[in-house]
């Protein structure tokens, strides 16, 4: 088994974006996609060759992101 997932071992704190503070921490690798767990959302992705990733958050009906969180 070869695991190419990004290593998010330490929480990353992002300042207030649109009045909300965002913090990332290591999640679970499945199910793929976005899934709600308690008061958090887990984003699970797979890429065989990715060296970095940015999580972009959008509001419904809006085409530009309101937050871009480099992971």
- By DSSP (H or I, 4+ residues per run), the number of helices equals 0
Helix content: under 10%
Order of helices and strands: EEEEEE
Please tell me the overall pLDDT: 75
Instruction: Specify the overall morphology.
Output: globular
Structural class: mainly beta
The largest sheet has its strands arranged as 1-2
Major sheet attributes = 2 strands, antiparallel
Percent strand: 35-45%
Taking pLDDT < 50 over at least 5 consecutive residues as the criterion, the unreliable ranges are 1-11
Number of strands: 6
Query: Any idea what the radius of gyration is?
Result: 13 Å
Distance between the amino and carboxyl termini? 23 Å
Quick summary:
With 71 residues, the chain is mainly β. The chain is built from no helices and six strands. The N terminus is likely disordered.
């Amino acid at each position: 088994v070869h695991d190419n997932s990004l290593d998010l071992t330490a929480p990353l704190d992002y300042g207030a974006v649109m009045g909300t503070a965002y913090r990332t921490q290591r999640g679970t690798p499945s199910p793929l996609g976005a899934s709600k767990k308690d008061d958090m959302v887990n984003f699970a992705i797979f890429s065989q060759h990715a060296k970095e990733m940015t999580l972009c958050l959008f509001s419904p009906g809006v085409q530009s992101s309101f937050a871009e969180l480099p992971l």
